[in-house]
Amino acid sequence: MAEFKVHLAGGIAAGAGASVAGHFMAGLTPLQAGAIFVVGSVGGLLPDLDSDTGKPLAFLFHLISVLLPSLLFVRAVQIGGDSPEFLICYFTASYLFINYVVCAIVKQVTVHRGMMHSIPFVFVCAGVAYLLFKPSGTQVAIMAAFAVFLGCLVHLVLDEITSFRLKFGIIPVPKRSSGSAFKFKSDSLFATLFIYLVLVVVVLAVFVPTLGSSAF
């Protein structure tokens, strides 16, 4: 398994590549390209949501507790208004809920190198990114989905690369962890079915506009 710093560097590289491509090939503004860089970098860490302890998990949830409420800000204002008291309650409640409720649930129900280290989960993350960025236009949403997809994929590839050891210094030999990241199912039937169910919902939300607008 690659170290946190390696995954962070991989995510940053993926985010940078996607943002540069978005700016020069898709015509994104510097501000939009900057947002793509951020979500691509975070995408490089998302599979580690199934880590039980340590700085990577805490760092990841701190990032999500800032980014997710920000991405949903427009919808929140439509519901609760833009008064200072509502905004204070909204951001504080979001931060506490994500860091102390959602994080605790994720720790309890996930196993490291489970379905969050899988190809279906990569598509789930990309689809959610698309839906969150859809208010900014289809072009930006597609680039956000691509950036997150690329970041997550880099994470899995790095894990697979480090799941080999060199015998006699030259012969690559797979470790027990080999194949546990780049997969389509896990040992848990429930976890596998759950991720595929979420993937179906996300795909429907992406391709059925009315469903996507009601969900986000």
Structure, described:
The chain is mainly alpha-helical and 216 residues long. It has one domain (4-52, 110-215). The protein has nine helices and two strands; from the N terminus they run αααααααββαα. A hairpin with a 3-residue loop joins β1 and β2. It is globular, with a radius of gyration of 18 Å.
Provide the fold topology.
Layout: H1 4-25, H2 30-43, H3 55-71, H4 73-80, H5 84-109, H6 119-133, H7 138-161, E1 164-167, E2 171-174, H8 189-207, H9 209-215
Antiparallel strand pairs: 1-2
Summarize the model shown.
The protein is mainly α and 216 residues long. It is built from 9 helices and 2 strands; from the N terminus they run αααααααββαα.
Record keyword descriptors for this entry.
216 residues, mainly alpha, globular
